[in-house]
Amino acid sequence: MNGLDTALGAAGLAAFLALGEAVPRLGLVKAEYFPPTSRIARALGTELAHGAFWSALGDTLTGWAVGLAVAVGAGIVAGVVLSVVPHLREATASTVEFLRPIPSVALFPLAILLYGTELRPVLLLVVYASFWQVLIQVMYGVQDVDPVAEETARSYGLGTWARVRHVLWPTALPYVMTGVRLAAAVALILTITAELVIGAPGLGQQIAVAQASQAVPDMYVLIVVTGLLGPVIDVGARSVERRALAWHRSVRGEAAV
């Protein structure tokens, strides 16, 4: 079945590339706005030979990785503290519900005003958008802790942090990994968007430069590369999730199937 899925996926990709080659050559769209696949492929080879491309890719991945790491760390700590400290979750619920729906794009002017157009405004936006994905999942995970297990741990004299380690964390970890996977995708979107809008170094900035200079094939190449980063990051996040949850029944069930 896996072999059939792979073959069908390859056939679909080949059909899509053939369609991209045929549409502009048949005159259905103007080639200067939508170049044929072969022309984009040649532009890809040219980009891969340039150090500027790899530098931009490195800048994008740096902003994504650093912002994601900060968001995950802060989200886990804040989620556990808000859930464990008595009455703190209720006291902060209205604040969380007020801040969480604010779209990150609304913070672009503030980020530029505070930090200019380098890496720091990108990090601010990435951390803000990704933080909520992790925080909410952690809070759901803590809420799912079995009360019987919690009371049993108390009866055995386990302290707060011992209960966090041995009872709360194993229950919350599947939720945490879901939050990390969601945050990884959101962080990539915000990184590219921030580079595109703010002009911070990275693939987004290169897309804007290619568009402004009418280098249309190069623009499509950079768009394709940013699109490929998404599945790569998702596969990596799922791999980390499977390793972290190798003991969990859901992962063992996947392995058995």
Give a written overview of the molecule.
By secondary structure, the protein is mostly helical. It contains 11 helices and no strands. Helix 8 packs antiparallel against helix 10. It is elongated and about 75 Å long.
Q: What are the salient characteristics of this protein?
A:
257 residues; 11 helices
Query: Overall pLDDT, averaged?
Result: 86
Number of H/I helices = 11
Helix content: over 70%
Beta-strand fraction estimate = under 5%
Tell me the Rg in angstroms.
Answer: 23 Å
Give the ordered list of helices and strands.
Answer: HHHHHHHHHHH
Structural class: mainly alpha
Instruction: Note the gap between the termini.
Output: 12 Å
State the low-pLDDT regions, or none: 252-257
What characteristic shape results from the CA principal axes? elongated
SSE blueprint:
Blueprint: H1 2-25, H2 37-48, H3 51-84, H4 88-99, H5 108-115, H6 119-143, H7 147-155, H8 160-198, H9 203-212, H10 216-244, H11 249-256
Task: Summarize the model shown.
The chain has 257 residues and is mainly alpha-helical. It contains eleven helices and no strands.
